[in-house]
Structure formats: C-alpha cells, structure tokens
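User: Structure please.
Assistant: Input sequence and predicted structure:
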Amino acid sequence: MGDDRTMAAGDAEIGPPAADAGAGRALLRLLRTAGRAAVDYALPPRCPGCGVIVGDDRQFCLSCWSSLHFLDGPACARCSIPLPTALPGGAVECGACMADAPPFDGAPAAVAYGPVARTVALRLKYGRRTGHARLMAQLMARPLATLGNSGEMLLVPVPLHRWRLWSRGFNQAAMVADALALLTGVAHDPHLLVRPKATAALRGKGRRERERIVAGAFALAPDARTRAAGRHLVLIDDVHASGATLRAAARTLRRSGAVRISALSWARVVPDALMTSNIFDFASLDSDIGDGRTAG
C-alpha cells in the first residue's frame, strides 16, 4: 500500500507530516509539564539550606539567601582571604602570605562558611544530596572567572583515598568539579591528582599537626606532566578552612609542570563568618571536615 503522506523521491514533503510533528512536540511538552507538576506536587522543591518549600530546584528561600555572605569584595592577591577595605596600588597580599606564601596563586570561594553554607556542604557529603553539587557549581562559576583565561584552566578536584571513596560512594569535590565543567565549559581532569595515603581527621589539630598529617598524602598520576603541561590547574574542594589540605595538594601539583596553580572552594572560613553566628572554631576545620573518622 502506498504512502499517501509523502511524494515521490526528490519531491518535497507535503504539509500534514510537519503538522503532525508539531502536534507531537506540543503533546510531548504538555506531558513533560504535567509530569513535572505531578512530581512537584508529590516532592516539591525545597530550600537546600533549611528545607522549606521553594519555587524551583536549587533555589534558596529568601531567609537563607539573605544570610549567605558572598566573597566578592577586596581580597588578598595570593590566598584570596577577604580584606577589610580595598587598598591602593593594585594587588595586595595579606600579612600571613607575606610571611609564608601558600603554594597557589589565588584561592577564592563562593561564600563565607556559615550555617547555610555548612548545611549545603554536609548534605552533599553525608546526606547524598547530589543535586547540591550543581547548586554549588552555579555559585562558584563567578569566582572561577576571576582566576583568568578559562581556556588555559584545568579543574582538578581534591581526591579522596580509596577507603573513603568506597565508604562514601563518591567524591563530593569531583562532583562539584564535574558540574562546574559542564556549566562553564572549562576542562577538568578528575584523575590528575591521586591520594595514596589515608590520613587521620584534621578536626581539633593545631596548624603544625595538620600540616604533618597531610604531608605526602597526594601524588601525581603517572602521565600528569603531559596532561598538565602549559595549563593553569584549579584545585576544587567544598570547604576551605585551615587550608592544610589545599596547600598539600597544591605542592604536589607544582611538580606537574603546570604554569599556575589556584584553588576554588564552595565555602571558606573567614573571620567575619566566625563572628556572625558561626560557632565553629577555625582551627578545628578543614576540607576534610567530617565526623572524626579516618579522613579520605
């Protein structure tokens, strides 16, 4: 039986198929909208900070959004710790960096560490709210852009030791890096840096002890120099507190032949965060913030 909806080979298709296709697309959109409405009714989007119902996925309520302190003001040119006021003369380093410069050039974060930022990070890390990685990446895209030419960048997540990876099931830093790469188009390499040494938790340790614990924790992949040559490596982590983990990772990346090393985090502990309802002690925290078990 002939097909009365098409013409002979080489002729143009007549009207009805296009109309049918348009109707099909409209029906598909309608079904998707209805499906989304049904899901939202059963499982409405909730604020990642406090859990109240909000208008859309990955959206904060007004109260939680207002409590976030975005770190987009004057900062140290070396470690990106916020400075009280902008100073004349261009790039300015903080006293700590002038005394002991870290092994990276710039370490911005999206927000200051506080109750809401902490909740988002912990719900990703321990609550398996993997969608929070995309939320964090959305707010980290802006400070990432301040680090320079995105075409030269390579995102490198801080790795977990295999024992920690097996127990948790995923690396939260790698999930954030992956989401950030998809959002910005910046290249990423989740396996450039590895963590062959299991380390004890850093909670409650002094600076020297933290530095001792993470010393030798990281190593480069066998072909890291080829993959990193000429690149600007950007370490990705969820929380930047004492900075011991980021410094140890950056020192290892220095051996890769990269032209520049930077770091980028979701939240950073800064004096302002500690002064405004954040009851957590700076010295007790690190990117390995957790429950006191052996850190990955």
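The radius of gyration is 24 Å.
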